[in-house]
Amino acid sequence: MSHKASAPVYANFPAEKLTIGAGVAIFHLATERVVVCYHSRDGYWFLPKGRRNATEDTIHAAEREGFEESGYRNRVLPLPIKHRQPDPDEGHQRFVTEPLWTQLLPLTATSQYILSWYAAETVPKDVEESCSNASSVGAGSSTRNYVTPPPFPMTLTLRQRLAMDLLANASGTETVYEPKRHEGTGVDEDELLYISELLPIKDAREKLRGSVMEDVIRRAWEAVQLRMRLEDHERAQTVILN
């Protein structure tokens, strides 16, 4: 099921009546799974999301909320998606970190919530270890001292990224790196009730059936597959020319 876009609307909100938030679908690309959260008291499934902090970049907010609500460190993926934003690189910016969906949700009779949904990936082992080591410096729990991972390198292909999750074990055979799930990353009592799982994409969509969140996963995974095909085609053309 694909959601349809709502009709455009005119609306005006002063700062004290507007809340801006971000959500994220976090993929483990190597195993074709996506992070889905479950509210253990209220009994529903959802993708991690939340309000951005004052002066915080919205993409950073999506990554941080993804970590706080699911326990998985993540970074937004540049993908070949259609959008209406100007391209400062004169049309050469094929892969972008734009929202896949944006929702307008009323909070009260007089206040508005704007929620943008992004696609992200779990981080590779070296990035996880670097961020975990950095967050442990200073007082308090390392899971509370959130460290933003470096962005997905623009020169890195998805095939190269997949190879980074193949690790050699003691016997010399390859195993797939399992992303680390941090415990106790929720920032309030409600978030501490969340349980997160890395589910196969089909299963995750079934859990979220009929919601915009299901369509976020669908759109994101289609964009991942498209980027893979584009990069594979370019690689093949380069081999032919050489």
UniProtKB/TrEMBL annotation:
PROSITE patterns attached to this UniProt entry: NUDIX, NUDIX_BOX
Keyword entries, A-Z: Hydrolase
Pfam families: NUDIX
Coiled coil stretches, renumbered: none
InterPro entries xrefs: NUDIX_hydrolase-like_dom_sf, NUDIX_hydrolase_CS, NUDIX_hydrolase_dom
SUPFAM superfamilies: Nudix
Domain Nudix hydrolase stretches: 17-162
UniProt KW Cell membrane keyword: no
Keyword Isomerase among record annotations: no
GO MF entries: hydrolase activity
Protein name: Nudix hydrolase domain-containing protein
Provenance organism: Baudoinia panamericana (strain UAMH 10762)
